[in-house]
What we know:
Elements: H1 2-21, H2 24-31, H3 37-56, H4 64-89, H5 92-99, H6 102-114, H7 120-137, H8 146-169, H9 175-198, H10 206-233, H11 236-239, H12 245-256, H13 264-280, H14 284-291
Helix pairs in contact: 1-10, 1-12, 2-10, 3-4, 3-9, 3-10, 4-8, 4-9, 5-7, 5-8, 6-8, 7-13, 9-10
Amino acid sequence: MAASESLVRLTLLTSVAPLVWGTSYAVSTELLPPDRPLFGAALRALPAGLVAVAAARQLPHGHWWWRAAVLGTLNIGAFFALLFTAAYRLPGGVGSTLGGISPLLVAGLAFLLLREAPSWWRLGWAMAGLLGVALMALTADARLDGGGLAAGIAAVLAMAMGVVLTRRWGRPVGSLAFAGWQLSAGGLLLAPLAVVVEGRPPVLDGAAVSGYLWLGLVGTLLAYALWFDGVARLPIGAVSFLPLLSPAVATFLGWLVAGETLTPWQVAGFMLALSAIAAAQLPPALLRNLVRPRRSRRAPAPCVAC
């Protein structure tokens, strides 16, 4: 019972990360300066990473220098850059739907790199989750841009690869230091790229400062510390479904804050995505007992010769 309660608690804490990430689109469009995605990504990652490293007082050692650089590039640098590129070239609905393929990509990469075969149960719910996100996000007039689609798929692939490699290599230090290594590596990649592509940083007003503080402290420092801790300890098939919470939160905030109207199809997609996330968390042993309950043992026949 204690182990089960610990697993539920860890899952709930890890879920905080995609829940917070679901606020990023609303914060970016309402508070941050427009057309500066790389600057925003660098400002979100680098300060949070340096604060985490300073607080943890632990630097990488040995092969973890290059491993932290690889993970930071996949989970932070490449992911942020590609994600913001897709966001500027695609409608939010299409971008969210691309994020729905994350469980399928993680399942495929886990099989190739970790030799972990996905269960039919989770594969089926992965398809259901993708359908749910599509119902929430896609509209009939959604624009499709080839470059944006490529960037969006590459972003999801980068994060899926980062999740699988994190599971393969493990976590040699605490979650705060581990997040700090990757955020710093990703931020150091993004900062010069932002200067080259976007030029001088924009002047920030009070709204932009509050938006960057939210994204940096809560959406990055806290969220990634919880996320990397969960990725290292939870079953990879189960944790791969948690990012589906982000488009669900984005859809809910659009209804709550922006006054958007939810269609019956969007409500159905919302419920389907949440059902997929919950179903994927069920442990395989419990599923086996539900699908193939143990046969009751027959009582031995009485001995007539005794």
